[in-house]
Design a protein that fits this description.
Radius of gyration: 22 Å
CATH topology of the largest domain: Aspartate Aminotransferase, domain 2
Helix content: 25-40%
Bound molecules: ligand T4K
Largest sheet: 7 strands, mixed
Shape: globular
CATH superfamily of the largest domain: Type I PLP-dependent aspartate aminotransferase-like (Major domain)
CATH architecture of the largest domain: 3-Layer(aba) Sandwich
Strand content: 5-15%
Length: 405
């Protein structure tokens, strides 16, 4: 017997398709006994912070895993980016995409600089490097590539560009931990790469991040800025911070690093399920991680074409939320439309047409340790049904806008 819409969709009163709210984000929690053992060690040693043994172990393991000379852990990626800019002695303006988490651009504000926003590629969502030439002027001192969605923004081409224009190059690689380009880990490109180890990322220190570089001098500067009062070889710096990572954070990160291969594989398997389940839906396009040969599949990103799908991205989000599927709209609004950047001359709709369109049409679905195949099947089922019944749903929801929350 065919179900009525009221019996099928939670937004109209049916039982939600998922039993509990399921967030976007990796949110991996290692088994309790391993966590307990790690924390017992911290209590036995009576040592909480400041370059403790777990932090040292983590940094050594990261250096070997990522194939970089220096991996310096910090309290979060935002601070990592601020420290990177200071260590490279950037000034004036830095070219970067507006289509990123606001922290990427805020790191420049904290360093007393301004972004020059670059539009993105419509297929991949990565920064459109064809546009870089037009954005360089005498005030630009660097380029910040953002490696998005478990993909990369063509770091090899960016290195060539930066060299030819005598610019510093660094990467916000918050989404790219464990990704590879033809056998080379994403980590050692440009002058510096910065990773996020936030709980929502595939390598998780609860909060945390890591600055990677092969340059000894930059590493010395970063190590002196990080802990308020210098460290390792003292070098001449004018600003310091406290962006240390604690032993508790390092303990979780070590467990997460140990489990990285399993978690990455789980993501890849789930991503394949999404590819199958979402492949033939009019008006929905799944964005595959681009520019890498190994991805961490940290995000499942879809673009919704309202005219073809029959519902707007935001209506679909409300339908999914009622089903306990807490899809997100990263990044909305684009950074150029956020307070602090509204007057930026590079951030107009005319200059960022693709960014504008993608900010209005893109959403992320749950993937990671809290999601299993059955969840993915159910999520695909409800997205498919939403599109199939889009006309009736749109008409019903137009009469009762309060159902959209
Ligand atoms: N560059 C890029 C490109 C980035 O995406 C980010 C961060 C950065 C730089 C800066 O990195 P960090 O300085 O943060 O290291 C999240 C994260 O806070 C942020 O790290 C991330 N990107 C951004 C894209 O997303 P929110 O505020 O949208 O996520 P939040 O905290 O609401 O968590 C997502 C969902 O997970 C919620 O439904 C709640 C749930 N949740 C969350 C946590 C932390 C849990 O169930 N348990 C948890 O422990 O920002």
């Amino acid at each position: 017997m065919n179900k009525s819409l009221e019996e099928r969709f939670a937004v109209l009163g049916a039982r939600p398709i998922l039993d509990k709210p399921t967030p976007v984000g990796q949110l991996y929690f290692p088994e309790w006994d391993r966590y307990e053992t790690a924390f017992r060690g911290i209590f036995q040693r009576q040592y909480y912070a400041n370059n403790g043994p777990l932090l040292t172990e983590l940094e050594e393991k990261l250096e070997s895993f990522l194939g970089v000379k220096h991996a310096m852990c910090v309290s979060n990626a935002t601070f990592g980016l601020i420290i990177a800019a200071e260590a490279m002695r950037l000034s004036g303006k830095v070219i970067m995409p507006s289509f990123t988490f606001i922290a990427s651009a805020q790191s420049l504000s904290w360093a007393g600089m301004e972004p020059v926003f670059c539009d993105i590629d419509p297929q991949t969502h990565q920064m459109d490097i064809k546009r870089l030439d037009d954005l360089v002027d005498e005030h630009v001192s660097g380029v910040m590539g953002v490696n998005l969605w478990g993909g990369a923004c063509n770091p090899v081409a960016l290195e060539e560009f930066a060299r030819s224009r005598d610019l510093k190059l660094y990467f916000d690689s918050a989404h790219a931990f464990g990704c590879e380009i033809e056998g080379t880990p994403v980590a050692g490109f440009g002058n510096i790469e910065v990773f996020s180890f936030h709980a929502t990322k595939i390598l998780n220190a609860t909060e945390g991040g890591c600055i990677c570089t092969d340059d000894d001098e930059l590493a010395d500067r970063c190590r002196n800025i990080r802990p308020s009062y210098g460290d390792h070889k003292a070098v001449n710096i004018t600003k310091v911070a406290n962006a240390r990572m604690s032993e508790a954070q390092a303990a979780i990160a070590l467990l997460s690093l140990e489990d990285f291969p399993r978690n990455r594989q789980n993501n890849e398997d789930l991503f394949c399920e999404y590819e199958k389940g979402l492949s033939n839906i009019p008006g929905l396009r799944l964005i595959r991680p681009a520019g890498v040969t190994v991805s961490n599949y940290q995000y499942v990103v879809c673009e919704i074409d309202e005219a073809e799908f029959g519902l707007s991205r935001d209506t679909l989000l409300a339908i999914l939320k009622a089903e306990n599927i807490n899809a997100r709209r990263y990044f909305y609004p684009g950074t150029h439309r956020c307070v602090g950047f509204l007057d930026n001359p590079s951030g107009t709709a005319e200059r960022l047409p693709v960014t504008e369109r993608v900010c209005a049409s893109c959403l992320q679905l749950p993937i990671g340790a809290r999601v299993d195949r059955r969840n993915v099947e159910k999520i695909c089922e409800i997205v498919t049904a939403s599109q199939r019944h889009s006309a009736e749903l749109a008409a019903l929801l137009a009469k009762k806008p309060e159902l959209l929350g």
